[in-house]
Write a structure and sequence with these properties.
- This protein has a single domain, classed as Tetratricopeptide repeat domain (Serine Threonine Protein Phosphatase 5, Tetratricopeptide repeat), CATH 1.25.40.
- The chain has five helices and no strands.
- The protein starts with 15 loop residues before the first helix and ends with a helix.
């Protein structure tokens, strides 16, 4: 998908967002398997591809939290919150993580 922007077995070129969401779901898959290195690899590629998608930062924060780095998770939730200041859910998450790390 990275080289030709097509899915395996197809010749039709895909929308670039297909690649983004494939990386997101691959990262989420490895997150649930607790393979944090692979999860970080895919989420970093996704953020590099489209750095303005809030969901990517939220997933990366979840990965850091589960990996044990609450400080970095808090910073990522704050970064996600700043991308969409009107989202009350992100405001609440960011506040919750700030409380967790004092």
């Amino acid at each position: 998908m990275e080289k030709s922007n097509t899915l395996v077995g197809e010749e039709e070129e895909q929308d670039p967002t297909v690649h983004l969401w494939l990386m997101y779901f691959a990262s989420q898959h490895f997150y649930f398997l607790r393979n944090f290195e692979r999860a970080f690899t895919f989420i970093e590629k996704a953020i590099e591809h489209t750095p303005t998608v809030v969901d990517l930062y939220v997933l990366k924060a979840k990965i850091y939290k589960r990996a044990g780095d609450k400080q970095r998770a808090c910073a990522l939730y704050e970064e996600a919150r700043k991308l969409d200041l009107a989202d009350r859910y992100l405001n609440a998450l960011s506040s919750r993580y700030k409380i967790r790390i004092d």
